[in-house]
Amino acid sequence: xxxxxxxxxxxDNVRLGEDEKSVxxxxxxxxxxxxxxxxxxxxxxMYDAIKxxxxxGAPAIGICAAYSIYALARQWEVQDSAAFAEKFHGxxxxxxxxxPTAVNLSWALNRMEGVVAANTGKPVxxxxxxxxxxxxxxxxxxxxxxxxxxxHGLSLIKEGxxxxxxxxxxxxxxxxxxxxLGPLFLGKERGMNFxxxxxxxxxxxxxxxxxxxxxxxxxxxxTLICDNMASIVMKNGWVQACFxxxxxxxxxxxxxxxxxxxxxxxxxKHYGIPFYVLGPTSTIDLNCPDGDHIPIELRDPxxxxxxxxxxxxxxxxxxxYNPAFDVTDHTLIAGIVTxxxxxxxxxxxxxxxxxxxxx
Length: 359
Ligand code: MRU
Prior knowledge:
The chain is α/β, with parallel strands linked by helices. It has twelve helices and 14 strands. α6 (124-154) crosses α7. The protein has helices at 3-9, 43-51, 58-75, 81-96, 103-118, 124-154, 182-189, 206-217, 230-235, 261-271, 302-305, 347-354; strands spanning 14-16, 23-26, 37-40, 162-165, 195-199, 221-225, 241-244, 248-250, 255-258, 275-278, 284-285, 325-328, 335-338, 341-343. The protein is globular and about 65 Å long. It starts with a helix and ends in a 5-residue tail after the last helix. Bound molecules: 5-S-methyl-1-O-phosphono-5-thio-D-ribulose.
């Protein structure tokens, strides 16, 4: 394994501060030009870090939120367990309101609150111990899930294949290997070579700033393209599979991911290219029946009008529509790759089976 590769897949994008009263993240908004770490101490700093995409990617948001609520709870001087539970609930709801689409956020926070509920009446110091174990477990489990997803994803591609990806579902967005990019890192470790096409991913350029950075650093052959170039790359015969991450998968297999993903899936269908969604079971929301029920985040119009440019590139009064995610219809998805295996249509059955105790 090359030193560069080891570095990327072992990056500490989110961790608990040494005092356990803070959370340390890589500020993803500064990459690839600067690697800066931020120490988050207050609930507002934690909320803003998620909202402003300093930490982003569905699993990373969940891990950050779990560490955050624990770090905050360690700062409180509350001895009564009922008062502790009430305060915990208020802060959990606040952090949970930072972004709506990635279900990992509420999933992780609910897991943490479940620990408080299971320890009702116990001394607060004991509750804190259990919370510390839970947020570390969420992180450890994500590392294992990413590794398993990478193995399953790698079984879908072969030496020399061209893979197109959209947004960033690599180590920065998750833990270690990532989801959609995981098979590529794992394959590289095993001496395999792929040609990756990374959509730049307008408007916030996660593909340009983060995906091409991660792959290039790892020595993987990556070509950065503008989003509107995916069609020609596919037409040229350069893409054998599309691998994308997900922010919430509904019970019927409809999958929300970064805005533009559904367009890639439609193109892939046109060119007969399999389109795979890769994500941990923590991103599957069986309470959500279909894509129409997935909340889609709307973001600041200035991200379209003026971000990245020395001067605004549109009139300040021009109307903008800036949804952060879209939903890919389950009929366009060749498989949903989870840590437990690859689900195929009909997804209502294959996804439910993942949560079946007997599975
Ligand atoms: O707005 P972002 O950058 O948080 O969007 C992230 C994505 O769309 C990722 O593809 C998704 O969270 C999967 S990360 C494994």
